[in-house]
Amino acid sequence: MDEYNKVMMVAVDTLRANHLGCYGHDQETSPFIDQLADEGTYFEKCYASDVPTPSSFTSFLCGSRGLENGIIGFNDEWSDFRPTSRPLPERFAGSGYRTGMISNLPYSTPWLIRGFHDIHPPGLAFQAGSATEVTEEARRWLRNHGNDNFFLFVHYWDPHVPYDLAPEEYKEMFSPGDYSESSPDMEVFEENEWLKAVYKGHHSKTGTPEKPEKVMSLYDSEIRYTDSEIENLFGALQELGIDEETLVVLFSDHGEAFGEYGFWDHHSCYNNISRVPLIFWSRDSNWEGPIEEYVQHLDVYPTVLKMAGLSRTGGTDGKNLLPLLEGSGNGREEVVVNTDSTVIQRMYVKNDYALVHTPLRPIRKHIDEFEFFDLEEDPDQLKDISEEKEGLVEKYRLELQDWLSDYLDGSLDLLHKSAVKGCSGLNWYQEALSENPDLAFDDKEFMREFINQYGEAAWLVGEERITSKEDMEAYGPRNE
Ligand SMILES: [Zn+2]
Questions:
Q1: Phi/psi at 287 (nearest 5 deg)?
Q2: pLDDT tens digits, residue range 88-98?
Q3: Residue 408 domain-assigned?
Q4: What tens digit of pLDDT does each residue of 161-192 get?
């Protein structure tokens, strides 16, 4: 196929790459997705440029980083959104394609409706709508528009918390006992009563089991359920006889943590969150694969435009991946990921080493401001080796600094701005504690602890000078 005039983006929220068979999982979570990866191809080292959900989807659809488009976390609003390139659906709509969105993202990130002719949010609420309902909406849309030139964005939420929504038949396929070796040891929580309290509060609030083995088995049941619904969705392409003309890109906005290194949900830049599946599928493709080069979400933007025969617009930092698919060309030398969600963190990955900078890290006292990991030996990033690799750490720090100077070109580093204000998502900590009457902390003490942490971060970024507890109390909570 020279040029595709039907493009379907399948987003599976919260899908951790190594929980798919094709990415090496030892549980049978993804027979259909594995088949797609086999018939098409997949990128082994694809990283989001921004996490979590709002910033990830914004960067994906705009082909630009949050540092540039203005969306870096949960606190950003419509007025912060200033893309330098037209969002992908707008590009397709402007070229005569019918554009459809089957997602309830408009409830959280309303700026992402730009360019869509039809918007169908399954369940009519944020994070609502089961995989079955998403597929039904998408199939209905395809029946109406599948014979036009189209760009369709279909978004499944199921692997996201709460984890127990898959039908019973899928839950029965996975047993907690099979995860005893792969589940995290939770040692960090035993050494940090604050972290343990927030962890317990979050799990009690969301009705989620605390044992990682149980969480992982339920999480996998939701992937398996979504996998079968994606198969059902593909059935529509065949029924309409358009499967040979359609390009499909399957991806996730971020992964998930189950307690590793003191994290749960998806609030960091570490590999288990920022390394995401990316699969390209076309019925008659003859692509290379799997592709081991580093790539990032924002590279999909120029790639699908190219594959649809539409000219590339300015303003994207994405790299066209078509040469890589065809067996030539290179990926990226390094990847950079940012997050603003319960921590403020940036990760720089190159040659299988990761430098992680965390200027703001409330409660997580086990994390140093700069950490260094060997991703080949330690893909879960449990062992900071910065002391034994001092020279390399310095080299990576300088490289990251150069990268930032080039990229920002004098403009403000939005992560620093957010660090001074207090990062997004901290209200969940407070909610988690107040929702749990068994916990012995009151809100005032809790906020004081945060102010301590803000003070440290503010000092670190040099924007505010807070050196005593009195200063911190006068400074006041940042998250009101
Ligand atoms: Zn998400």
A1: -80, 155
A2: 999 999 999 99
A3: no
A4: 999 999 999 999 999 999 999 999 999 999 88
